[in-house]
Each structure stands twice: as structure tokens, then as C-alpha cells.
Amino acid sequence: MLETSARLLRLLSLLQSRRDWPGAELAERLGVTTRTVRRDVDRLRDLGYPVESATGTTGGYRLGVGAALPPLLLDDDEAVAVAVGLRAAATGTVTGIEETSLRALTKLEQVLPSRLRHRVGAMQSAILPLTGPGPTVNPELLTTLAAACRAHEGIRFGYQQHTRRAEPYRLVHTGRRWYLLAFDLDRDDWRTFRVDRIDRAPQPGPRFTPRPEPAEGVHAYVSNALTAAPYRHRATILFHAPLDAVAEHTSPTAGRLEPRDADSCLFYAGGDSLDSIAVFVALKGIDFQVLDPPELKDHIRALAQRLTRASSED
Questions:
Q1: Are strands 51-54 and 60-63 parallel, antiparallel or unpaired?
Q2: For a tag site, which of 87, 163, 181, 260 has the least CB within 10 Å?
Q3: Class of 231-311 per CATH?
Q4: Contact, 249 vs 284, CB < 8 A?
Q5: Taking the complete model, does pTM exceed 0.85, yes or no?
């Protein structure tokens, strides 16, 4: 009986980890036959878990949406992450979710083992959220977009008074704003959309086969789209310091860092004016060299002369 219960928990964990599972693969992971998998799936259904079956030669299972929320299986790290995430959500940029997050957090902490309550309490006591005015998003919109990303379902939505058709890929949070990375079907290219600028609820479309990621990789594409592409000027800076040292003074939304060697790194950024880029880079307090554009060097020389005159005695 203990072996069966442990196997059911393992099966539930697998079903929660991804959308679709072939029966043969589940049997291999659990070390049992496909017939045993079918019996275990029936047991989960009896316990209230809405496990759906797929027909066909291979067969398959997925954890569907039920009328009631069954218990979720979380390991220690996942439980701590959920608790800390709920605390962040209570004071974050998602509107209308603060009180709900606190209620859910209270329920979770009531059943946490003491060793985990101490971990959560230590992290919460050390975190001081400093929130300010800025754009917020509706939690229902976030969950709708996240579900479309997970299910590979196309969407049609309003964006700054225009209708857009896209294949959603991933939600990105920069600490201040939420962005949707998607393939824009009308422009036939990858795009990032600010979620707070979606002004008409997404409508579901047909499912799609995921496309290859952007050539430079998802992280580099999103970083470039947020820090360089929207601006009039782009710059490439060589910092004479290790990447980790520069990263301590640079947020992901300010620019993209790449390692060059053990003692230097490259910084790609954009700005509406060359002066703003010059000041931003200079204030890091790290030796640097402008690689591009050439006119940025002239602005830095002029800025240096202006600062020198300002500090000279009359």
C-alpha cells in the first residue's frame, strides 16, 4: 500500500510538470506497465484529480481543469517559492490580487512544516518592497496569457487600439513591467508586447507548433528589444571589469551584458540622446571604452571638459 501511495504521488508530480504525457513514457518513468499506469490514473480520478485521456495508437494523459481544485503536490523548495511569491504579489504590480495573495499565504503557512516556516519567515523579514507609481496589470490577463503560452494556442488581442494576431511564447517580468514575447503573425516576426498596453482581452485561436527561438536566443532578444531597439541611439561599451562586477551596477532593463574575457565585458544599450548614455555609463565608476558609435566619444569629451570647467577655481 505504501508503494502504491508513493507511486501515485510520483505520477501526480509528473502530470503537473508538463502538459501531455504518453502512457508508455509514464510507465517507463515509474518503472511499471502501462496497465498499472491506467489503474493509477483511475485512482487519481477517484481522489478528485481531473486526469484526461488522449486516444490514438500511443495514448496519453494530461492533468485537466476540474470543477474543484484538488490538492497540489509541492516539494520543499517549491513550497517556499510559492510562499515568497505570494508575499511579493501582495505588494507587487498585479492589481486586485493583494488581499487574495495574503489569504492564500495564510493558508499555506498553516500547513507548512516548522523547518519551512522558518525559511519563509527569514526571507520575508529580510525583504522590504519599495513600490512606486507605475503601470499595473490584471491578474486574469496574466493567467490567460500564461495559459496560451503553455498550451501553444494563438491569440487575437487589442494593443494600443490595434488588433494583433500572435503566437504567444513567454511572459517576461522585468521587476517593473510585464512583457509578452510572441511571434506576430501580421508582421511575420518576433515581437515583445507590454502587457499593461493590451486594451482588449485576448481571444483564443488555433493551436500552433512552436517555432524555433530567435537566432540570438530568447534572453538576448528580449533584452535587446527592451534596452536598445526602442531608442534613437545604440551604443556598445567595453567595460574593463569582469561581467559579474558590472552586473552588480546594471539592471536587466538598462542594457545587455556579454562576457569578453575574464577581466572585461561588453555592454549594449540604447538611449534617446547620446548625453544620457554618456552620463549613465560614466556614473558606474568603472573604466570603460566606447566602441560604437563614434559620435558618442565626442559627447564624452565635451562632457569631460564641461565637468572640468565646473570644478575649476575662478
A1: antiparallel
A2: 163
A3: alpha beta
A4: yes
A5: no
Cα–Cα distance, 80 to 115 (Å, whole number) = 10
Distance CA 292, CA 286 (A): 18
> Which SS3 state, helix, strand or coil, does residue 159 take?
strand
**Distance between the two ends of the chain, CA-based, in angstroms?**
90
Give the phi and the psi of residue 170 in degrees, each rounded to 5. -160, 145
For the chain, the maximum distance between any two Cα atoms, rounded to a whole number of angstroms, is: 92
User: What DSSP letter does each residue of 49-104 carry, written as one string?
Assistant: --EEEE-SSS-EEEE---SS-PPPP--HHHHHHHHHHHHHHHTSSBTT-HHHHHHH
pLDDT value, residue 39: 93
Please write the tens of the pLDDT for every residue from 243-257: 999 988 887 777 788
CA torsion through residues 282, 285, 287, 292, sign: negative
pLDDT in tens, 174-211: 766 788 999 999 999 999 998 989 989 899 999 999 99
Give yes or no for residue 291 having a pLDDT over 70.
yes
Q: Omega into 242 within 30° of 0, i.e. cis?
A: no
Amino acid (one-letter) located at 212: P
Q: Which CATH number fits domain 1-63: 1.10.10.10, 1.10.1740.10, 3.30.2350.10, 1.10.1670.10?
A: 1.10.10.10
Cα–Cα distance measured from residue 308 to residue 199, given in angstroms and rounded to the nearest whole number: 49
Rounded to an integer, what distance in angstroms lies between the CA atom of residue 159 and that of residue 136?
15
The predicted structure's pLDDT at residue 134: 64
